Amino acid sequence: MNTLESEGLHTYYGKSHILHSVSLAVEEGKITTILGRNGAGKTTTLRSLMGLTPPRSGKVTILGQQTTHWPPFRIAGLGVGYVPEGRKIFPNLTVDENLLVPVSRGGPWTPARIYELFPRLLERKQNLGRQLSGGEQEMLSISRALLINPRLLILDEPSQGLAPLIVREVFRIVARMREEGISVLLVEQNARMSLEISDNAYVLDDGKVVYSGAAEELRRDQDLVDRLTGAHAE
Ligand SMILES: Nc1ncnc2c1ncn2[C@@H]1O[C@H](COP(=O)(O)OP(=O)(O)O)[C@@H](O)[C@H]1O
Ligand SMILES: [Mg+2]
Fold it and tell me: Residue 84: nearest ligand to its CA?
């Protein structure tokens, strides 16, 4: 069973045609990664799925519901946690206050359990969002998404701009979400690390799916990854 499916998404910003028939699936309880160079359309794909930039044509099905023309809050309410690119935490609210924001659906994730998962945030509880390091901000952003008790977690480049040790920590947390029974859709530029924890993979280029298959296959073939993500040209 698939937690999420998209079929033939075409998405525009004004007159710019960005996504060209993007179809993908997120299997229940699995981690699916979307790779691709800068500007490939990864963020636009996530925004289309979340209803933030709705597709002009195509179909999105999430948790058995046709969500194509739903507003973002309604999609979130189904149990979809979204960790946007650049984290988007509230800079002038404390860590504690940032964790009050999402609407909880009820379930295992509470602020107390979040502080167990991220002891670092507990220490920084009274600090303002803008006083946190990049890694702490990422943890806070993931925490906000977890507090809605998602069945599907969507993350846009969680490792961006983080020090290598913190990147490891973030990937460890994402891998742990699968053990919690959460389906994960992960967009990444860090192909090596994301393939290590993923079950399935897609590569986007120029708004089109140029690869879909088992993450294992890409894991074993670095040349293929480089070719698909245009790494050789950069
Ligand atoms: N708000 C916007 N208005 C117009 N064009 C945009 C906007 N956001 C992104 N784009 C363009 O859409 C394409 C895909 O961008 P994006 O989805 O952000 O790629 P990625 O996340 O893979 O780096 C790029 O060519 C980018 O310049
Ligand atoms: Mg992006």
Answer: 2
